[in-house]
């Protein structure tokens, strides 16, 4: 039986093509709005917050603009005013109906910010309606509770946003993403070995750095949601500052990296340190160097670092779905979760 989650993972190449076709022609709209601002503030929760981490690294590293991850409770719980003149506030919500995010984006506008919505909910969703500009992804309806195609299309929308704020990247790289994702779906690497390596383990540390940090956070969240693992998502810089002590025979590490870039050598060195201490290190991406240092490895995309996260998460999604089934869990409907989460 094919799960809804597995079917929606397979829909990602088409969803990415449709989203990029719709949003790339709108770069000039982003440019006009962003030209009135200096800094960016991302407003999101859950999976969308992990997507925002990608947006922050991309825009700070490639566009030279300061970014921050907003705390919605400042608006919704503490109800404080903040001077947001010169800020581009970006609200992310797959449904566009999360009341906390809608309220916070509206609050940001009232505090002087220009506002952008990134949502799969369509132009009539509350989030899109409250924003100055809505970048609506075209993932189609997502029935499984764990987000897959809505996450990767959010990353695509953030890449378009980055182009609009002046990122020094080759926009043509985006056209390579759907084919790279399709290839990973067909050949994710040694999936069965990684699944068996996690069976019976109470927890796992998922680590990456830089652009791959968003993938580590999102994969950790998926393993929590769908497999009920105590999964900790960390930058490897933070992991080395103490939490690495939790990595042992019962707590393996999943290490994520693009196939190029300045964080790859450190990820490989961390894999060597983990395996040298007698624990398992499972690689995701990182090319042949990370695979050689790991206990077992999943493939990564043949993409430049700045777009690699759109592909890097895909083997992790496949891992989550396969591990959940191996554990006797329905990945489409994890306990205690709904598709749209409203925060008090």
From TrEMBL:
A single MF term (Gene Ontology): hydrolase activity
Entry keyword set: Hydrolase, Repeat
Protein name stated in the entry: SIS domain-containing protein
EC number(s) on file: 3.5.-.-
Domain SIS: 29-171, 194-334
Species for this entry: Microtetraspora fusca
Class in the EC hierarchy, top level: hydrolase
One of the Pfam families matching this protein, by short name: SIS
């Amino acid at each position: 039986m094919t799960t809804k989650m597995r079917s929606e993972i397979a829909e990602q190449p088409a969803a990415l093509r449709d989203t990029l076709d719709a949003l790339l022609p709108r770069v000039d709209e982003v440019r006009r709005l962003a030209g009135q601002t200096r800094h960016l503030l991302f407003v999101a929760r859950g999976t969308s917050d992990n997507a925002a981490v990608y947006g922050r690294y991309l825009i700070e590293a490639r566009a030279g603009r300061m970014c921050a991850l907003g705390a919605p409770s400042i608006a919704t719980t503490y109800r404080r005013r903040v001077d947001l003149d010169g800020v581009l506030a970006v609200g992310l919500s797959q449904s566009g109906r999360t009341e906390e995010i809608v309220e916070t984006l509206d609050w940001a506008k009232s505090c002087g910010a220009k506002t952008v919505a990134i949502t799969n909910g369509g132009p009539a969703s509350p989030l899109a309606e409250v924003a100055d500009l809505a970048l609506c992804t075209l993932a189609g309806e997502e029935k499984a509770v764990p987000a897959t195609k809505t996450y990767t299309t959010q990353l695509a929308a953030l890449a378009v946003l980055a182009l609009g704020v002046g990122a020094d990247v080759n926009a043509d790289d985006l056209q390579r993403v759907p084919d790279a994702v399709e290839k990973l779906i067909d050949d994710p690497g040694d999936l069965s070995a990684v699944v068996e390596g996690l069976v019976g383990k109470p927890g796992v540390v998922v680590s990456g750095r830089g652009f791959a940090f968003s993938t580590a956070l999102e994969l950790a969240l998926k393993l929590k949601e769908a497999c009920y693992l105590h999964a900790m998502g960390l930058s490897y810089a933070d992991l080395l500052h103490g939490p690495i002590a939790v990595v042992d025979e019962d707590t393996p590490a999943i290490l994520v990296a693009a196939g190029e870039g300045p964080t790859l050598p450190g990820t490989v060195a961390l894999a060597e340190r983990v395996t040298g201490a007698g624990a398992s290190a499972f690689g995701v991406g990182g090319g042949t160097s990370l695979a050689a240092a790991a206990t077992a490895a999943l493939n990564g995309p043949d993409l430049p670092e700045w777009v690699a996260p759109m592909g890097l998460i895909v083997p992790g999604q496949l891992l989550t779905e396969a591990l959940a089934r191996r554990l006797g869990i329905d990945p489409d409907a994890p306990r205690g979760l709904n598709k749209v989460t409203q925060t008090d």
